[in-house]
Amino acid sequence: MRETTGGTRQRIQAVALELFTEHGYEKTSLREIAERLGVTKAALYYHFKSKDEIVTSLVDDRLRRMDELIAWAADQPPTLATRRALISRYADSMFAGDLPQVMRFFEQNQTVLKSLVAGQQMRNRMMRLAHELCRGDESPAAQLRAALTLFAVHSSWFAVRAPGITDDERKRIALQVADELLAKIGENGQG
Amino acid sequence: MRETTGGTRQRIQAVALELFTEHGYEKTSLREIAERLGVTKAALYYHFKSKDEIVTSLVDDRLRRMDELIAWAADQPPTLATRRALISRYADSMFAGDLPQVMRFFEQNQTVLKSLVAGQQMRNRMMRLAHELCRGDESPAAQLRAALTLFAVHSSWFAVRAPGITDDERKRIALQVADELLAKIGENGQG
DNA sequence: GTCTATAATGTGATAGAC
DNA sequence: GTCTATCACATTATAGAC
Fold first, then answer.
1. pLDDT in tens, A128-139
2. Are residues B72 and B102 in the same domain?
3. Boundaries of each HTH tetR-type domain copy (chains A, B) (predicted)?
4. Is A27's CB within 8 Å of B115's CB?
């Protein structure tokens, strides 16, 4: 619709994401990306005006979804049911398409991504999401539990080593553990 | 004892760790480290024979402590009491000296550190530690809970935003949440 | 133990032909 | 839409003076 390219832009994104995730953003050079695609660096610069614009293009769609999610949550009452629905929706969007890999890339390159606008935006959205997850209980323990809930969804991809496990099972387990953590938010007594 | 230097080696380590953590390993140049110390790059090469040897020197002491911890755990019975003692000891060593910063550096630069021996070793120790934390219950949920337990200790440093909170309080909260997660390991019925 | 100087290489990015 | 050629610069690392 908007490009006459035969998917070259998408192929660049796919290869870049793979290399960024595998070797890190800084360590992956444009030459490496171009070589793997069988094109030249100049070809890359036709589609993206800089290296970090590739990251931006990768993250943009994810950012939109997170914004929708945060806006939705802000409109709900701060109850356990809302928190559970929020993490469930988040998991749904995490386990779709290549977004898990985008999140893995983001999580394992946080320091470097601090200097990129796209990285700062992702960071900001994660913090706001965590904030929504413990709305009504700003105690330190609640904040920690909220953060762990998000991490549970992310890490179910690599922390769980089981032969033949399906994506749906990973998601189910992540949500099970997340629900237990969320249930403790709002119980203001500690200990 | 082994160096006649007036702590230059230590000063290099301190500045390198700070910059690696702040900007990332790849993005931090030796020139930058040398400049901040008021010496030249060549001076760095007198103390460390390469850039990644600085990382090695930073991680070595941490690796030793983790090895001790893993060996200790392997000698204990696989009970809840052992798991709790293990995470408590881990937290103690985490909250001492500049080790928290080393762990933060490690966690936020994982992808890049994969290509460094020191990084692979740290990764290996973390996995073994997680394994010890769920020994006797290798179910996916248990694996996830064990990983989250470690992350609870690490993330209590940045996930909890509270004015004037002390290190001891952070540790206490991390262990409280960790204990709850560990208590669910070994209950083989899954809700 | 720290310096100057420099080698050798790789990087992101641009200009302009086709 | 992709190419060749090249720029300007930063990088790790080394050699050798002091």
1. 999 999 999 999
2. yes
3. 6-66
4. yes
Do A83 and A104 lie in a common domain? yes
Answer whether any strand D atom is within 7 A of the Cβ of A10. Answer: no
Give domain status of residue B191, yes or no.
no
Do the Cβ atoms of B153 and B90 come closer than 8 Å?
yes
A188 falls in which pLDDT band (50, 70, 90)?
low
Q: Which residues contact B4 (CB under 8 A, 6 or more apart)?
A: none
Read off the tokens for A127: 């913090």
Q: What is the pLDDT of residues B34-54, one digit of tens each?
A: 999 999 999 999 999 999 999
Is residue A5 pLDDT above 90, yes or no?
A: no
In a domain, A191, yes or no: no
CB contact under 8 A, A26 and B21: no
Q: How far is CA B6 from CA B1, B3, B12, B50, B138, in A?
A: 11, 8, 12, 21, 50
- Exposed/middle/buried for residue B71 (C-beta within 10 Å: 0-12, 13-18, 19+): exposed
Residues B77 and B16 in one domain: no
Reported as a pLDDT band with limits 50, 70 and 90, residue A2 is very low
For C16, which residue's CA is nearest its C1'?
A: A42
Number of other residues whose CB lies within 10 A of the CB of residue B81: 10
On whether both B96 and B143 belong to a single domain, the answer is: yes
Mean pLDDT score of chain A: 94
Residue B12 lies in a domain: yes
* Average per-residue pLDDT for chain B: 93
Enumerate residues 6+ apart whose C-beta is below 8 A from B130.
Answer: A159, B143, B146, B147, B150
Find out whether B112 and B24 touch, Cβ atoms under 8 Å.
Answer: yes
| DSSP string over A139-168 | -HHHHHHHHHHHHHHHHTTTT---TT--HH
Closest-CA residue in chain B for A112? B24
Residue B124, both tokens: 């290996």
Looking at the 3D structure of chain A, how many domains does it have? 2
Asked whether residue B13 is domain-assigned, the answer is yes
